[in-house]
Design brief:
Layout lengths: L2 E4 L2 H19 L6 H21 L6 H8 L5 H18 L7 H6 L5 E4 L8 E4 L6 E5 L1 H10 L5 H4 L10 E4 L5
Parallel strand pairs: 2-4
Antiparallel strand pairs: 1-5, 3-4
Helix pairs in contact: 1-2, 2-4, 2-6, 3-4
Length: 175
């Protein structure tokens, strides 16, 4: 007789997220898999923020992003979210302009991704043109997000965004 075995949340998270992201980081030269990895990690980051609100923290998401990513400015946190999360998750590219930026009167910064940049967004100006830039090590940010899920069964079981069940059929010997 066969047995149906449910795979734990931590194991599902590992095989669906942690392992594929680690593979991208290690297997693609020059960190070039980071855009695809950010497109996976940023919704997980949003899930973590929503989880905190559900647990009773005040619903001030820009402040959470600012504090967690050491941005130190609510306006810059909103711009970061618009450029990165909204841009990548809605269009597959960083926003250079968006409906929100036009509505808010923001000039969105350019993006500089490099392993030599800090793990958290650094807002700076390009010395040659004076344009605003967000510098970031994308893999540092991705690792920061993924650490939030390590051994955090409560987050993995978050009722408003549960990880889908996964079962293996284990065949009994002699079947």
């Amino acid at each position: 007789m066969n047995t149906l075995v449910k795979v734990s949340e931590q194991c599902r998270f590992s095989i669906w997220y942690s392992q594929p992201l680690a593979f991208l980081e290690k297997s693609i030269s020059y960190g070039d898999g980071a855009i695809a990895a950010l497109m996976v990690a940023l919704p997980l980051y949003e899930r973590w923020i929503r989880f905190r609100v559900m647990k009773g923290e005040p619903d001030n998401r820009p402040q959470m992003v600012s504090d967690d990513l050491h941005i130190g400015d609510l306006g810059k946190a909103k711009i970061f979210w618009n450029v990165f999360r909204d841009g990548l998750c809605h269009t597959g590219s960083f926003f250079e302009t968006s409906e929100k930026s036009l509505k808010e009167g923001w000039t969105l910064p350019k993006i500089s991704l490099d392993g030599k940049h800090p793990d958290f967004p650094r807002f700076t100006k390009y010395k040659v043109t004076g344009e605003d830039i967000i510098e970031i090590n994308p893999w540092g940010l991705i690792r920061h997000i993924m650490k939030k899920y390590e051994n955090n069964s409560e987050l993995l079981q978050y009722a408003k965004a549960p990880l889908l069940d996964l079962h293996y059929v284990v065949e009994a010997e002699g079947s």
